[in-house]
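Example 9 (inverse folding). The structure is encoded as follows.
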């Protein structure tokens, strides 16, 4: 009789464990960060929060050409989100700089898109 009772107890314990295991895994992870709430700032076309540390509006030629040499380097556009991400596309002759003509052409191309 004791063997039958032990088998029943083991079987019941296994059933209980099987039924409660999914509950243990269903608990939320409190260490994970909650998703940011949807707001007007996160609408399509809006910048991510880390990108907002850079300038949100493209700067003018005068603002970007900080050393007044008549061309823009990657260092000069690093603080401008649009020009830093479009530098290679705007540098049409691939000389590592954006000339004023390349700047105007790329700005016009971007406006027409």
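The amino acid assigned to each position is listed next.
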């Amino acid at each position: 009789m004791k063997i039958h009772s032990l088998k029943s107890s083991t079987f019941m314990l296994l059933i209980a464990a099987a039924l409660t295991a999914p509950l243990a895994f269903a608990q939320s992870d409190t260490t994970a960060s909650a998703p940011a709430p949807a707001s007007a700032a996160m609408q399509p076309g809006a910048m991510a929060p880390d990108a907002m540390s850079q300038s949100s509006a493209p700067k003018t030629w005068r603002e970007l050409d900080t050393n007044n040499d008549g061309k823009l380097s990657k260092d000069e556009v690093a603080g401008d989100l649009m020009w830093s991400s479009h530098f290679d596309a705007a540098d049409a002759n691939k000389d590592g700089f954006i000339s004023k003509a390349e700047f105007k052409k790329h700005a016009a191309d971007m406006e027409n898109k």
